[in-house]
Write a structure and sequence with these properties.
alpha/beta, 10 helices, 15 strands
Length: 326
């Protein structure tokens, strides 16, 4: 088969479409013929040499995919060869085939095409696990989403609105904010021109955000704590703004607030399977009913993954950038 390899860390040109051995499904795994994968920030970090795959997993980038089951490994039940699926991966999505633990498979939601389904597993599992399973966003509460026009952001807006929450977002252009508004965002903050702490307070009569989904890390830590409501929950899922910052513990104590920081990739298989099962139970019906949909910016050939990485690094996209196999 062919896959995107990274012979040496570097810029987008470091991604090489090369011939590699086919994967073999092990105990509890299935082999998926990949229709499409999607670009995530973790793929860029891996390409740059900063985010190695977990031990024993595929060396190729790609944290999600869609495709058809080509082979069942030992001990797999409930799935059949030919089933159309999408999957959460620890790596290996940028390839024509990938071995996937059966617990990380999802059927295609109704009305979602095979290629577009590649836009779902990583973002839906990330949002559901952080915003709902950890931060426990409830109807009537306010969610602040940083990077509202990203793949994560566009999904977080839709899921929060589907459960009856109010949504504030940050983004850097009017076009991106307008797209967030189309998806249901109530409060639109241009982070280049406005202070999100002040804007969220104004929009909540001074209360602040009950839950914040943050992809920036250090750069936003102090302001995120100031933007939280009493009993607020800050969920950190990225570090685009750095990894080290001072935390005002007094402010956190005063608000009786909580901070969590999680990633999906290195979690044990059982935890991933639990998240995927929760997504299938709680989120898939929202897709089936048409309340939530994948937001896809563009589709590019997987062999041209370098061009897709450039788009994401330049933040020139809204929603997901997909890589489609030949």
């Amino acid at each position: 088969m062919h896959a995107i390899t990274i012979p040496e860390p570097g810029g987008p040109e470091a991604l090489v479409w090369d011939e590699v051995p086919d994967p073999v499904p092990g105990e509890g795994e299935v082999l998926v013929e990949v229709a499409a994968s999607a670009v995530n920030r973790a793929d860029i970090l891996q390409r740059q040499g900063f985010y190695d795959p977990p031990p024993g997993t595929s060396p190729y980038p790609g944290l999600e995919c869609s495709g058809r089951i080509a082979e069942l490994g030992p001990g797999v039940s409930g799935w059949s060869v030919g089933d159309e699926v999408c999957a959460l991966l620890a790596g290996g999505g940028y390839a024509e085939k990938v071995a996937v633990p059966a617990g990380q498979l999802l059927p295609l939601p109704k009305g979602i095409g095979l290629v577009q389904a590649a836009a779902l597993p990583e973002v839906v599992c990330t949002v559901w696990s952080n915003v709902f399973m950890v931060a426990h966003l409830r109807p009537g509460e306010t969610l602040l989403v940083h990077g509202g026009s990203s793949g994560i952001g566009t999904m977080a807006i839709q899921l929060a609105k589907a459960v009856g929450a109010k949504v504030a977002v940050t983004a850097g252009t009017r076009e991106k904010l307008d797209r967030c508004a189309e998806l249901g965002a109530d409060v639109l903050v241009n982070y280049r021109e406005q202070d999100f702490v002040e804007e969220v307070r104004k929009a909540t009569d001074g209360a602040g955000a009950d839950v914040i989904l943050d992809n920036m890390g250090a750069k936003y830590l102090d302001r995120n704590v100031r933007a939280l409501a009493v009993n607020g929950r800050l969920a950190i899922i990225g570090m685009q703004g750095g990894i080290k910052a001072e935390l005002n513990i007094a402010a956190l104590l005063t608000k009786r607030a909580a901070i969590s920081a999680t990633s999906l990739r290195a979690r044990p298989l059982g935890e991933k399977a639990s998240i995927v099962a929760a997504v299938r139970e709680h989120v898939w019906p929202l897709f089936d009913a048409g309340h939530v949909r994948p937001i896809v910016d563009r589709e590019l050939p997987m062999s041209d993954a370098a061009a897709a990485h450039r788009v994401v690094e330049e933040s020139g996209h809204i929603g997901k950038v997909l890589l489609v196999t030949p």
